[in-house]
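Deviation from plan, reported transparently: iron/sulfur cluster complex.
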Amino acid sequence: MAVRGPAPPLSGGELYAEYPFLPGAEALVAGEGLSVRALLEGAAYERARVIGRARVLAAQDDPRASSTVQELASAGPDERYLSFLFARLVLSAAPAAGGLRRWAVAEAKRAHARLEHAPSDELEEVARRLGFVFAASPKLVRVDLTDYVRLASPIREAEFRLASQDLSGGGVFVPAPRAARLLQEAVRRELAVPVPLTAELLAAVRVRESELLADVARRVPAAFERGRARPTTMDRGRFPPCLRRMQRTLERGENLSHAGRFCLASFLHRAGADFETIVDAFRGAPDFDESITRYQVDHIRSRDEGRGYEPPECDTLRSHGLCARDGDPEGPEPKDRERDPLCYEPFLKHPLQYYRLKGGVSRDGKEGDRPGPPAPKGRGGPGAPSR
Amino acid sequence: MAKTPPLDARTLAWARGEFSRYYARAAVPAPERLDRREIALFPFAEANLMRRHTAARSVEELRRYLAAEIPRHVYYSSAYYRHPEAASMAAKEWFGADLIFDLDADHLRGAETLDYPGQLSLVKSRLIDLVDDFLVRDFGVSPRSTSFVFSGGRGYHVHVRDERFARLTSPERRELVDYILGTNIDPKRAVERASADVRSGRTVAVADEAEAAPLGRRGRGASTLRLAPPDAPGWRGRTTRALLALLARWEAEGAPKAASELIGWGADARKARRWAKFLVEEKRSERIRTTLALDVFGQESPEEFLELVVRRAAIEVQGETDAPVTTDIHRLIRLPGSLHGGTGFQVVPLSREAIDGFDPFASALLPDEGRRTTVELLADVRYPFPDGGLVGRVGETVKLATPRALFLVLRGEAALRP
Ligand code: SF4
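Because the crystal trials were delayed, the predicted structure below was used instead.
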């Protein structure tokens, strides 16, 4: 690591108020003998809870954190910290993960607003506490290669691709603003994981904050909009494993890569889904934004006089790590977890081909393609062996 | 996967017998953390069915298994599993994987037109680029955590065992792969705008990307375009290095060669000849090589030219782009120390120092124990084995050292005499 620059201009307390997710932030309230119970119920923490609830709700409506939370601006460091703790506690107790994920996106954005203008030794310090190796030098920040790919692979902008970085000796040298954006991702990851709660505590939070949790559930866009079943020719049961896993990813409120989103939208269109159904499929995304999604989906499906973009073929999906023919260990049903024999047929080249072979009807009218030539024997299995 | 020509039952039995002599005695080395790896194999059989999901707890167990099974091809998983013998991926419980590079003539652009020895040496030169330039220089991989293997076929494998990489997921490995393959690299990044410093009279680079104007539009005043220094990190420096090496070669080979090469890479023929003329014939490439300045392009943007050149600096692949540099975290890879069932060559582990001088024809074939086998040639053959090589014409009947006969038979270029 590089020689440490001058101490961050923030005092310890201020650092934690700005970055309350940092391990060590507890020091802010060290003298208070704070217990989770007290935070949840104690009269002394009423104001922290009020601010915390505002944080939670603001994040649901605006995960990009484009507006500021009024209550936060006027709060002192310890109140800001406590309100953060409270928000994290409540969302960790929510029955669905979507609320926590959206809040993680918003809090990460909020942290970014500060990181963006922070001196590089402050970036280095925040990274270090989150477990990443950044080293500041006067002009550039050196990010350890593996940390870089971990943090950059979910970021969609082209300028973050490793091939466009100054990479040398296992370090990626990035300008400070890019380092700040990487840290935003680090914060999002950190916060998207619920804090472990005992059954008793979980129950207590759900009872005391039932109103807030119900409000959150109402505001999180549902992966499939409730109660409005649309007649469609599309049959999810016939989807190939890769597409089913993409849908599950979004439904769990997790991030899906850009390639994955493109594939899902173009596939759904070809499989006959209407516009609203495709948009709905993305509602679970932690950074879902109605207008952006509508615009993008519209773009994908109006290509080629309405045929829409061609979904990527299996080889491409495989190279993006999106193929799921080996089975998804996290899949809910046994058939999701097992390897899919049809996907291992050598003639299977395209997810739409899978869909048609399973009897699905796709937009270009081809129905139930005859299975291809009989499979030559001896296809290896997962991980085609090398020569 | 090995392309193995179909062999009849008698030939299979003979070849299996030769392999069994090897496996009965071979001290096949254990891959690191053997007990966490899946072992898979193809037997000598007409139906080419793979047997998977085996594990070996110790190197002795592995050797006994090979001696008993006498496989035609053997693989092990680049992945580490908690239960390597389990039949499904979910039950295996993946917990990490080596970084594997599999450079094979089948995947490299430019190999199609070469003969077998030519392909092997092309692959070797790309392998050395991959290791020295990408893995060590850029990725900071320690040569100590890297091992090299001659695949026994038409390529080489690199195994990187480095804790830092082991747990990377597929999409994360994707970034590394794209870097090496040069996916979407932007040659503009290798061009800097230099401006004459009024006071010192020296040129200074305007390094800040934000300040750099798009290529082609000449800036105001005395600023010129020039290449990033050759030691600049990442693809910027690599682009410069590739261009400088290319220019030096063209200066030696002449303008017509340069033009035809550019055309071969897809350049418009008129442009290619013009570039070749002013760069090589009029010797303006020297100015680039000595000053890095790109002003020899005059009003023309050098972007199109660079675009063609920069591709040559990537590990160029064709077909399934993932084959050589895999993001597949369940990949199977040929077991070092085993025999390749399509050539009879040993899969030879090599040190970095040994790669340069390695010649499979001299050192990967099983030793000649004096036994001879008579075969009929099914093709014209020419292989640079030691002592005069192996040369013959289709239809000839020849008596060969058994390992050489095995080589030709497994390749489908000779048949056992009835
Ligand atoms: S083989 Fe093709 S269709 Fe099947 S899971 Fe993989 S990408 Fe999807």
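Residues 1-8, 224-232, 365-387 of chain A have pLDDT under 50 and may be disordered. We consider this an acceptable substitute for the interim report.
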